[in-house]
């Protein structure tokens, strides 16, 4: 029998079998738990596309071994909206055109949610840019992203 871990994912308690101790949280979410909203970009901690919240803190899920997370609470982009009601950060991204192709957007939004709850940047654009610097946007939608995070912070 495979070892298993207990996770709470987007509010739902789940026992997850881990037949490979090397599986990352990113691959677990996308390939085994049918949660493809979290994106794989570089797969080496450089782009932020895979950002999720673990116990409320931002992590690169591509660098996080699932086996280390027994008992953790994971929030992914799929867990942000309440039914039809978007999370304020999601709404602010739409209102401010804070994306172009959209591939990095789930990671950007999860990072913004984490940054806002850390409370370290406030609505200061310089500090928001610094706080979001781990999330790369190849379309360079940074201006809209910063405005969206500012708006969602207020
Ligand atoms: Fe994880 Fe790029 S896919 S940081």
TrEMBL record:
<dbReference type="GO" id="GO:0046872">
    <property type="term" value="F:metal ion binding"/>
</dbReference>
<keyword id="KW-0001">2Fe-2S</keyword>
<dbReference type="GO" id="GO:0051537">
    <property type="term" value="F:2 iron, 2 sulfur cluster binding"/>
</dbReference>
<dbReference type="Pfam" id="PF00111">
    <property type="entry name" value="Fer2"/>
</dbReference>
<dbReference type="InterPro" id="IPR001041">
    <property type="entry name" value="2Fe-2S_ferredoxin-type"/>
</dbReference>
<keyword id="KW-0408">Iron</keyword>
<dbReference type="InterPro" id="IPR036010">
    <property type="entry name" value="2Fe-2S_ferredoxin-like_sf"/>
</dbReference>
<protein>
    <submittedName>
        <fullName>Xanthine dehydrogenase YagT iron-sulfur-binding subunit</fullName>
    </submittedName>
</protein>
<keyword id="KW-0411">Iron-sulfur</keyword>
<dbReference type="GO" id="GO:0016903">
    <property type="term" value="F:oxidoreductase activity, acting on the aldehyde or oxo group of donors"/>
</dbReference>
<dbReference type="Pfam" id="PF01799">
    <property type="entry name" value="Fer2_2"/>
</dbReference>
<dbReference type="InterPro" id="IPR036884">
    <property type="entry name" value="2Fe-2S-bd_dom_sf"/>
</dbReference>
<dbReference type="InterPro" id="IPR002888">
    <property type="entry name" value="2Fe-2S-bd"/>
</dbReference>
<dbReference type="InterPro" id="IPR052914">
    <property type="entry name" value="Aldehyde_Oxdr_Iron-Sulfur"/>
</dbReference>
<keyword id="KW-0479">Metal-binding</keyword>
<dbReference type="InterPro" id="IPR012675">
    <property type="entry name" value="Beta-grasp_dom_sf"/>
</dbReference>
<feature type="domain" description="2Fe-2S ferredoxin-type">
    <location>
        <begin position="3"/>
        <end position="80"/>
    </location>
</feature>
<keyword id="KW-0560">Oxidoreductase</keyword>
<dbReference type="InterPro" id="IPR006058">
    <property type="entry name" value="2Fe2S_fd_BS"/>
</dbReference>
């Amino acid at each position: 029998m495979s070892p298993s871990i207990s996770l709470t994912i987007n509010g739902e308690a789940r026992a997850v079998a881990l037949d490979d101790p090397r599986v990352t949280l990113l691959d677990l979410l996308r390939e085994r738990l049918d949660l493809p909203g979290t994106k794989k970009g570089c797969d080496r901690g450089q782009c932020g596309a895979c950002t999720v919240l673990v116990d409320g803190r931002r992590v690169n899920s591509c660098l996080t071994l699932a086996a280390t997370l027994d008992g953790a609470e994971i929030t992914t982009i799929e867990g942000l909206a309440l039914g039809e009601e978007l999370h304020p950060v999601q709404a602010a991204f739409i209102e401010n055109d804070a994306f172009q192709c959209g591939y990095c957007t789930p990671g950007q939004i999860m990072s913004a949610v984490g940054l806002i709850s850390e409370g370290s940047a406030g609505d200061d654009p310089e500090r928001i840019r610094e706080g979001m610097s781990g999330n790369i946007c190849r379309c360079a939608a940074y201006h809209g992203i910063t405005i969206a995070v500012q708006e969602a912070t207020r």
